User: Fold this.
Amino acid sequence: MLGAALGRGLVGQVRGFSAMASQGLIFRQLFEPVSCTYTYLLADQKTKEAVLIDPVLETANRDAQLVKDLGLKMVYAANTHCHADHITGTGLLKKLLPGCRSVISKDSGAIADIHIQEGDEVKFGNFFLEARSTPGHTDGCLTYVLNDKSMAFTGDALLIRGCGRTDFQQGCPNTLYHSVHSKIFTLPDSCLLYPAHDYKGQTVTTVEEEKRLNPRLTKSEGEFVKIMNNLNLPRPAQIDIAVPANLKCGIQD
Assistant:
């Protein structure tokens, strides 16, 4: 295998940063404003091995420069799923950072250097991210959980006080409901949750907060399905460009 409201959430985030720093983990949260996508950089301070989660094409040069500035070695660029609202930066990052390999779920249907599934581990130095299959937004959605379960990267499966839509790309509200409750809400209450997007300026939440405050996922399954089936959201602006490109995981010839 491959080896809180803002006030309350910010306190947890600061404590989390302190604990991670003492363990030798480098962590950066980066933002792409057009699609409101978060990209996450994690690295082992000792070995300098690093992982990027959900890079965006337009900010790949920025991310590569940060990796170089910090003296890191990028071993993996991993996607939480095949995105519909932006083109992944993995293909460009592979060119900018030789040795970097792309990672995505085997259930995504996308091309990548490495395909992973439930229980696989993405290793970087003395750390690893455990892959948890969390379909419902797409079949290939993964949540990446840090080895000590202090933080998890939920992609579009769980957003801050929300969740990913289920009306395209194999979406299914019943499946998403069970994914979140069985794979994310079973993490420790203190676990910091970092989504792939936020549209209101929030950066982090916790398992406890979402179990208590998420306006959709605190409902019964039947109520959740009704909510999701009546969102009437507009079609993602970049879907016709993004999905075909991301099925190649951003790897360009």
Summary: The first strand starts at residue 25 and ends at 32. The two ends are 27 Å apart (CA to CA). Residues 6-230 form a domain with the Metallo-beta-lactamase; Chain A fold (CATH 3.60.15.10). The chain is about 30% helix and 25% strand.
